[in-house]
């Protein structure tokens, strides 16, 4: 019933810029005082961070942030300073979420977007006659058609058509400088900066975490690896694809609750194929987590020996316990679940101010399955530095199998302090996300701030689009 969970929305707030609606009076100092007091009293990782960094460092950090808070003139600056304050404790499983008074379609806090009136025909007329792919052209995402033209020693991308009513034709959606760095403005007008615009194959453009598909002119003879990479990185739902007689690819972009149905359906639909195919590649790059139950169906396929899962303890405070009490109102809750929750809540209330083990005092749970499937014989899981929370919990379980090897780079490292709870400030201007639980892995196998290392490191000489080919070269050699 108790599941480690981090909304990918909250993780996104920690990894990328967000849109904040400016307000002339956001009572920043009062809100910071509320955030500080609430976090100190209730966050499961507060004391742990102090033990690691020391009170002197914390006091200096408070002084530095308070100076920024006092200079904040709007909600954007206030939220940025409070978010910086939270980073003292750890990289993730916390958040400052501004509560916007304006409609989602509002313009950016800094003013109206840049305008550049261009028609689709004008964009086409400005495309050079070139045999090799250039940035100029018409590109699409799931929501936008964008015309990219050369402008001011760099490039500008202009909206030609939009599925988002906030973005009108003529608005400048992206800028690319002469050094190839730039910014892509998200649906809420926040600036998503990237270090380099990367052409993948001939018809895919990567701008940080955003991928554009070329609509005109389309160049033939595109590289298969580039096409598959673009498909993997732009999908919002899991999919399976047979790569050869020996290998199946299983792409899982998220472990959010809504993905569980698709993951389980794919496993059921391809059950016979999976159990006669030698290799399975599970690509979870950029998967920021979700709910543990989403990956449970995968474990039997990987299983070779008992899987040990280290339990967590919950910090008991009135505010924290109210979250557990809220679960009792969950629609469709069974009598057994209600009984389990009621007992857990009482145990928490009986131990105020303490860390409470709600797993009957056990440090570890051991999962034993009856069947070890001969196939797949080898399972490669592709990981990167955007994997956190539930994605890392999945890796801790999966890598205990003799079949499994991890490929890629070290994960984000945000798992030990978990179970995020979001509460609203008294003036309803901000929401604070903090954590309720601490893993019993600490300190012997801490993940926060360290991440999970791969068995096979994929170095920078191998482009992102070639990672899968590298994995295949190892599996099928």
Structure commentary:
It is built from 14 helices and 22 strands. The protein has helices at residues 8-15, 28-42, 46-53, 55-71, 75-86, 120-125, 224-234, 259-269, 271-274, 299-302, 318-326, 335-349, 390-398, 467-475; strands at 95-98, 137-140, 144-151, 154-162, 172-176, 182-185, 191-194, 197-200, 204-207, 210-216, 239-242, 247-251, 279-283, 307-310, 312-315, 355-357, 364-367, 378-383, 404-408, 417-424, 430-439, 456-457. The strands form four sheets. The chain has a nine-stranded antiparallel sheet. The protein has a six-stranded mixed sheet with strand order 11-12-13-18-19-22, sandwiched between helices. Strands 1, 15, 16, 20 and 21 form a five-stranded antiparallel sheet that branches. It is 29% helix and 24% strand.
